[in-house]
Structures are given as C-alpha cells and as structure tokens.
Design goal:
Blueprint (H helix, E strand, L loop, with lengths): L2 E5 L5 H9 L1 H7 L5 H13 L5 E7 L2 E10 L4 H8 L9 E7 L9 H16 L5 E7 L3 H9 L3 E7 L10 E8 L7
Length: 183
C-alpha cells in the first residue's frame, strides 16, 4: 500500500463532512459538518489565505483520511499551550489526523498514514526540526498510533480540548528529525 497526499479542495468537502459525522471521528474532532462550517474552517486553507495544510490522505489513490499540518509559529496561542508543557523548537510542526471510514480503523492505516506524513515532512520541509502533537489523554487509540509511528511522549498537562466534554489533560508527543551523518 502506498500512501500519498494532496491538498484538500472544496470538491472534497462532502467527503470530509461524511467523515466528520462518523462516530469515531466526531467524538474527538467535535466539528460542525454544515457546508457553511466546512467553508469557514477549511476554505481559507484551500484558498491559500490561511496558514497550514489540509491534506487528503490517499491509500493507493483512494481517499482514506485527512491530515492537518501546520507550523506552531503560525498559531501563537496553540504554540504557547505546548510551551507551557515542553520545549518548542523554532520551526516545529504539529499535525492532526483522522481515518474517515470506520471499517478501516484498527488495521494499521492510521500508523501508516502518520508515518507517511512524517516522511513527507522531512522530505518537503527541510527546516522542520521536530513534530509535536497534543492528544487528549483519554484518546488512547490516537496516542497509541503516534507511539507506533515512532513518536515519544515528552509531557502531559492541561490544554484546551477540542471537545468541551473532555478533560483538559493532554499528552504531548514529539518526533525529532533523524540525524544523518556525513563521513
């Protein structure tokens, strides 16, 4: 299986709305799925007017999920939440992710998708020293995927939850750019 990424477009909004409405996604993303909400929250990035990337993940060409990738420096309030718990290197990137189809959850697809976006980040963004990801402590499936993809837990503490029903306790995971030596 080959996982690739392409920018999310408005033509993908209906697919994304279906994924966001799935119980396993809605529980953690807590996102409105109306056309207006999708336009509000994804339209700016689709147009290139807002920082960050919304990437449609494809397995052998078939859409399977979404990865959001952004530089923490572009979101000062979020960066500051991380910085209250751990060191945030300049140029650090964060990701958020979902596998859309509930039938495909639990089969290693999330780990493969995260590993692929990490490899893509190292390849396409040579100035990124590390990825930092915050996960609600109760979202065990999500933080286990990060661990399987090579991330290590570096901190825990309160952060604003995506779902107001959740406890603010989050785990912070980090993956540093591999060091490649030259003789």
């Amino acid at each position: 299986m080959t996982i690739t990424f392409r920018p999310l477009t408005r033509a993908d909004f209906a697919l994304l709305a279906g994924w966001l409405a799935q119980e396993h996604v809605a529980r953690w993303w807590n996102h409105e799925t109306t056309p207006e909400a999708l336009e509000r929250d994804f339209g700016g990035i689709a147009d290139g007017a807002d920082p960050g990337e919304d990437l449609l993940a494809l397995a052998d060409g078939e859409p399977i999920g979404l990865v959001q990738r952004s530089r923490l420096a572009d979101f000062a309030e979020y960066r500051d939440e991380f910085a209250a718990l751990t060191q945030v290197p300049g140029g650090a990137v964060t990701i958020d992710y979902l596998v859309g189809d509930p039938e495909r959850v639990g089969h290693g697809l999330g780990t493969a998708m995260i590993s692929a976006v990490v490899a893509d980040t190292w390849r396409t963004q040579p100035d990124v020293p590390a990825l930092l990801v915050a996960v609600a402590a109760a979202n065990e499936r999500s933080w286990r995927v990060l661990e399987r993809a090579g991330f290590r837990r570096v901190a825990e503490g309160p952060m604003e939850p995506d779902n107001p029903a959740d406890d603010p306790l989050h785990y912070v995971y980090r993956l540093d750019r591999p060091v490649t030596g030259s003789g």
